[in-house]
From TrEMBL, chain A:
Region (Disordered): 569-624
A GO cellular-component term linked to this record: AP-1 adaptor complex
GAE domain boundaries: 634-749
Biological process annotations from GO: intracellular protein transport; vesicle-mediated transport
Name the record gives this protein: AP-1 complex subunit gamma
Source species taxonomy: Eukaryota, Metazoa, Chordata, Craniata, Vertebrata
Gene3D superfamilies referenced in this protein's UniProt entry, alphabetically: 2.60.40.1230, Leucine-rich Repeat Variant
Keywords: Cytoplasmic vesicle, Golgi apparatus, Membrane, Protein transport, Transport
UniProtKB/TrEMBL annotation, chain B:
Assembly and binders: Adaptor protein complex 4 (AP-4) is a heterotetramer composed of two large adaptins (epsilon-type subunit AP4E1 and beta-type subunit AP4B1), a medium adaptin (mu-type subunit AP4M1) and a small adaptin (sigma-type AP4S1).
Family: Belongs to the adaptor complexes small subunit family.
Keyword list, A-Z: Membrane, Protein transport, Transport
Gene name per UniProt: AP4S1
Subcellular location field: Endomembrane system
GO CC terms: AP-4 adaptor complex; endomembrane system
Function: Component of the adaptor protein complex 4 (AP-4). Adaptor protein complexes are vesicle coat components involved both in vesicle formation and cargo selection. They control the vesicular transport of proteins in different trafficking pathways. AP-4 forms a non clathrin-associated coat on vesicles departing the trans-Golgi network (TGN) and may be involved in the targeting of proteins from the trans-Golgi network (TGN) to the endosomal-lysosomal system.
GO biological process, one term: intracellular protein transport
Protein name (database record): AP complex subunit sigma
Residue span(s) of domain AP complex mu/sigma subunit: 1-141
Length: 754, 144
């Protein structure tokens, strides 16, 4: 109407959300006023405006009563907007909707098709169970009266009523037989939907309708053979929507039922071969046909036909078709494995799909198709995929390869190579047990020890960042280091490795800030094992003149690590440590973020027993970087941040030059008072833009008279170079009191984060 | 079953919304925003079907408008894809090359057309002449 466009124009003219709100509020006030005292002749226009406003997301509930009034009006234009309004604004939760029941009843029995259509449409959208009870007989009457316009809507309204009140199936089942003889496509479509709904709800109905399978087959056959002369043709396919609906019903009726499946066998083959596949409409029908073949007791030949159709779909340029093909093949791969195998090359091609939802399906399908005869070729394809696949598929791809390798590895060496390659490519995405599995695999393959240690050494020398790889390599070097240094291995490139190179590499791992505590544990164990076996003319092992064995650098290395670790062990073992670490990681302050979850524990490698030092992997989480001074720390001055009754807290900072985003803070607690500080716990919090990892402290007692300080390492990752803030919370017992101190470190030097 | 039928433009403004299964009013805007975001983030190399919460979304773009249909998993995606085009062809016929403005200024008529095609989440009529017949009659009635 004349007023409508103005509103829309005004809304379009609004430049900001606030402006739009203003326009709408003004208009709603106007609409409300007009509902109250406006001309009833224009009410429908006002409601129409309100519906527009409602679509934009603004509240419009005050229009509900207007809908009722309009529906009750004799004018068609009023009813039209009223019913539409009811569909959009009303739902079961409002009492108002029940009030339209009478109007609907009247309108349904009036005999004016357009009005009946409106009433049915609204009834089938918002009709509550109560309303459905009330109006069921009205709708039933309309099912069999002459006008097709109303009948097609009545049938679908019946579907809604059955969904709301299943008992009404009794009323709506009997008319179906007659309705199925209709030629009007709209009525047929609705009837098929109604029968489908009845069958899905009741096994008795399902049994009952199996009788009509021959009839359905006939209807579908007529559609398929009629060609493009009908009024419902789309892209040369007769009413694809009706075909799809019939196929779906046949699927439900034929499922687990030999006789019905047999009755439809020929027809399905006919549809499969006669449907024009050049356009989407035909392919939609073909797709539904494949689904029906898959899900019913089809003859073997028909099933193969279905799989081949899907295989052809995979080659189609249309990605939508490839998508449904991949999804369907995935469903069939277990039941029709050999048929699907024939399309393996095409499936593998689909790994390269740019659409991640397709490549994910292709991955799943590829993994399902790996068997002992194709494992080498398939693994090769999957490994290349792993190198370039989207990040969210890496974990699945990596674990899929590892699983396939485990099941079908042709040789042990191939198996080791495969795992090695996965660890190198996607080490961070493998599951925790990959390390243990590989160490066990290597351990159990004596003939491959020399090969494994050489390959792992080379891999490690190239890259020490992939933690699982580093862990396995460190373990292997520890176990078979002598094979690495002496002797040769035919299967690898000749490799001359000197002792000091091996030790230097392990030391590099130990000191790297990329190494997790678990990894350090492996490296340390390896060093310890090697130190008992090596010749000793290495500077790490060398003593300075006049000193004893115990003064060698390696001994100090080990001792520092062990000493720092021991207090933790005294406290009662791994579970304590873990709980402690996680508690320390929490700080209940709203503005600042808490720390990372506790570091995962390493797997104890399955050791070999005699002759090898089978030490359980330690978890030396308290290795302070100050032990190893290979790097000159960026010279940031130390900071005293806290002092109370003799307890002092100092912070020292290290910014490792190769990882500028990383800041290492060593917190040192010293006690000059006459009484021990006990139960000392330090917690920390940093801004959200940073990541904090607290490592376990060296102890929780700060001994009196300036005894051995307690130290704790904080690792802060600050990639955005955001101004650093640090909040500390201390709790401890001292001089007979429980103390809690929370404070922010105010004077952090800018060099800690710039 | 069709759960909802949306027409949303590239700026995220909803031009038509029809829900066949009740969704709370306040959740609708959020749903529409998320749906359009999913569609806008797709490239032309990606297929037209998106898995979205417990729906499947089938979408097609016509100029600046996205038509997005949310269905449950019993629906044939390709048939719905075809249906969307069927709907647009009907609009094209009625409005003679339909534009976004046509839809905005004739929202009630678009609703009527959609209601002739989908009832209660089920497709009821796809024949263009039959869909438009009642509307054309009524137009004639209001002219006279």
């Amino acid at each position: 109407g004349p007023e409508g466009p103005n509103l829309i124009e005004e809304i379009r003219g609004a430049k900001t959300q606030a402006q739009e709100r203003e326009v709408i509020q003004k208009e709603c006030a106007h609409i409300r006023a007009s509902f109250r005292d406006g001309d009833p002749l224009h009410r429908h226009r006002q409601l129409a405006k309100l519906l527009y406003v409602h679509m934009l997301g603004y509240p419009a509930h005050f229009g509900q009563m207007e809908c009722l009034k309009l529906i009750a009006s004799p004018r068609f234009t009023d009813k039209r907007v009223g019913y539409l309004g009811a569909m959009l604004l009303l739902d079961e939760r409002q009492d108002a909707h029940l009030l339209i029941t009478n109007s609907i009843k009247n309108d349904l029995s009036q005999g004016i098709q357009a009005v009946q259509g409106l009433a049915l449409c609204t009834l089938s959208t918002v009709g509550s169970a109560e309303m459905c009870w009330d109006l069921a007989t009205e709708v039933e009457k309309l099912l069999l009266q002459p006008g097709s316009y109303v009948r097609k809507k009545a049938v679908l309204t019946a579907v809604h009523m059955i969904r709301k009140v299943p008992e009404l199936s009794n009323i709506f089942l009997p008319p179906c037989a007659q309705l199925l003889h209709e030629r009007h496509h709209g009525i047929l479509l609705g009837t098929i939907t109604l029968i489908t709904e009845l069958c899905e709800r009741s096994p008795a109905a399902l049994k009952h309708f199996r009788k009509v399978v021959p009839q359905l087959v006939q209807i579908l056959r007529t559609l398929v053979m009629t060609g493009y002369s009908t009024e419902h043709s789309i892209s040369g396919v007769s009413d694809p929507f009706l075909q799809v609906q019939i196929l779906r019903l046949l699927r439900i009726l034929g499922r687990n039922h030999e006789e019905s499946s047999e009755t439809m066998n020929d027809l399905l083959a006919q549809v499969a071969t006669n449907t024009d596949t050049s356009r989407n409409a035909g392919n939609a029908v073909l797709f539904e046909t494949v689904l029906t073949i898959m899900d019913t007791r089809s003859a073997a030949g028909l099933r193969v036909l279905a799989v081949n159709i899907l295989g052809r779909f995979l080659l189609n340029n249309d990605k939508n078709i490839r998508y449904v093909a991949l999804t369907s093949l995935l469903r069939m791969v277990q039941s029709d494995h050999s048929a699907v195998q024939r399309h393996r090359p095409t499936v593998v091609e689909c790994l390269r799909e740019p659409d991640a939802s397709l490549s994910r399906r292709a991955l799943e399908l590829s993994l399902a198709l790996v068997n002992s005869s194709n494992v080498r070729a398939m693994t090769q394809e999957l490994q290349s995929f792993l190198e370039s696949c989207p990040p969210d598929l890496r974990a699945d791809c990596a674990s899929g390869i590892l699983l396939a390798a485990e099941r079908f590895a042709p040789t042990k060496r191939w198996h080791i190579d495969t795992i090695l390659r996965v660890l190198t490519t996607a080490g961070t995405h493998v599951r925790d047990d990959a390390v243990a599995n590989l160490t066990q695999l290597i351990g159990g393959a004596q003939e491959l020890h020399a090969y494994s240690v050489r390959r792992l050494y080379s891999a490690l020398a190239e890259d020490i960042s992939q933690q699982p790889l580093v862990q396995v390599a460190a373990w292997c070097i520890g176990e078979y280091g002598d094979l690495l240094l002496e002797g040769s291995c035919e299967e690898t490139e000749p490799l001359q490795v000197k002792e000091e190179e091996v030790l230097a590499l392990l030391e590099k791992v130990l000191q790297s800030h990329m190494s997790l505590p678990a990894t350090r544990g492996y490296a340390l164990t390896a060093l310890m094992k090697l130190s008992t076996r090596l010749r000793g003319d290495n500077k790490l092992l060398m003593k300075s003149p006049g000193s004893t064995q115990r003064d060698t650098p390696i001994f100090h290395l080990l001792r520092a690590a062990i000493l720092e670790k021991m207090p933790l062990v005294e406290r009662g073992g791994t579970q304590d440590e873990e709980a402690k670490e996680s508690k320390e990681a929490q700080l209940s302050e709203a503005a600042l973020v808490s720390t990372e979850p506790p570091v995962r524990r390493p797997e104890a490698p399955r050791g070999r027993g005699l002759g090898r030092a089978s030490t359980p992997s330690p978890a030396p989480s308290a290795l302070s970087p100050s032990c190893f001074s290979l790097h000159t720390p960026a010279s940031v001055p130390n900071l005293r941040v806290f002092e109370r009754e003799g307890l002092q807290l100092n912070l020292s900072f290290v910014r490792p030059p190769e990882t500028p985003a990383l800041l290492l803070i060593t917190v040192t607690a010293v006690n000059t008072s006459g009484a021990d500080v006990t139960h000392f716990v330090c917690q920390a919090a940093v801004p959200k833009s940073c990541q904090l990892q607290l490592q376990a402290p060296s102890g929780d007692t700060v001994p009196a008279q300036g005894g051995l300080p307690v130290t704790q390492l904080l690792r802060i990752f600050n990639p955005n170079k955001a101004p650093l803030r640090l909040k500390l919370r201390l709790t401890y017992h001292h001089l007979g009191q429980s103390v809690q101190e929370i404070f922010e470190v105010n004077n952090l030097p800018a060099e800690t984060w710039q | 079953m069709i759960k909802f039928f949306l027409m949303v433009n590239k700026q995220g403004q909803t031009r038509l919304s029809k829900y066949y299964e009740h969704v709370e009013m306040n959740k609708r805007t959020l749903l529409e925003t998320e749906v359009i975001k999913s569609c806008l983030s797709r490239s032309s190399e990606q297929c037209s079907f998106i898995e979205f919460k417990d729906f499947k979304l089938i979408y097609r773009q016509y100029a600046a408008l996205f038509i997005v249909v949310g269905v449950n998993d019993t629906e044939n995606e390709m048939a719905i894809y075809e249906f969307i085009h069927n709907f647009v062809e009907v609009l094209d016929e009625y409005f003679s090359r339909v534009s976004e403005l046509d839809i905005m200024f004739n929202l009630d008529k678009v609703h009527i057309i959609l209601d002739e095609m989908v009832l209660n989440g089920c497709i009821v009529e796809t024949n263009r002449a039959r869909i438009l017949a009642p509307l054309l009659i009524l137009d004639k009635m209001s002219e006279s």
